[in-house]
Description:
InterPro entries: ARM-type_fold (IPR016024), WDR72-like (IPR049916). The protein is mostly helical. It has a domain at 203-301. The chain has helices spanning 2-16, 19-22, 31-35, 43-56, 78-91, 96-121, 129-133, 137-154, 163-176, 183-202, 205-221, 233-253, 255-268, 274-289, 291-294. The chain is globular, with a radius of gyration of 23 Å. The relative contact order is 0.08.
Amino acid sequence: SRSCTNAGSALAAFYTRHFAEKVPDIKPPSLQLLVSFWQHPSEHVRMAARSLFHCSAPRSVPLPLRVQRNKIPDHLSLSDHMDKLIPEMQSASVSSYGQFKVDDENLDRDDDDTSQISSWLESFENQEWLSWIGGTSQDAVASNIIVAAAFVVWYPSIVKVKLAKLVVNQLIKLVMSMNDRYSSTAAELLAEGMESTWKICLGTDITHFLSDVLFQIECLSSAPSSNVIYKTAVAVTMRESLVGTLLPSLAMADIMGFFGVIESQIWATSSDSPVHVVSLKTLIRVLRGSPKALAPYLDKV
Length: 301
């Protein structure tokens, strides 16, 4: 029965989530498969999928995303390494030709990294796990975006710096697509990394994104009853992610832009529009979470 299946899934998830910790030599599971369960209806499955992801992530970084480090051989001490490095530096050519050559090599490497990362984000071939969850090529691409964003937010030191800029717009598109398997997770990752990472990447585009999120919330709140998706728990989850998680983080990242957006939205919508209530709730959350940041704008409050 369905209840037995759910119970079995919960138990299996609970008892397998520590395998990666206890058996370090085991082959890491597919990170893309794990993130596809982050919005599973069962809390046990969600917890297990996230636990397994964090256990596996440090040793499962996809090669195109992984930062390359110059590792000092174990048999070579730090002082020996410096003794070897200094003469090499002293004997290196400082001619302009040599400098230009290095710059060209760095530029080529930079372009190559960008191409590899972009190709990986858009890849969907040879994804065996898709058949296990009944997924499509769109699920493959969406899971790649979630995996990359998760590394940027939680493990920034082991992935390439440029990954954040290359994935942020893809992450926003995933939020706005209202995908029932990934959009809420995408909103959570955007919110969690907004202050530390995404804010710098987005710049003035945060204001436009704020406006889009408010419009999406209004659509979810006042959708026609004939549309089946909006009557499901999925729509409720999406709305909660936007209202309770993403919108406050965007507001705190661009307070002036937030005030400008809600002012224009309030004047442009009817008095019974959900935008009014959502704006007020967001303002209260920002006031509680970052009162000092709001101090210069008290006249607008």
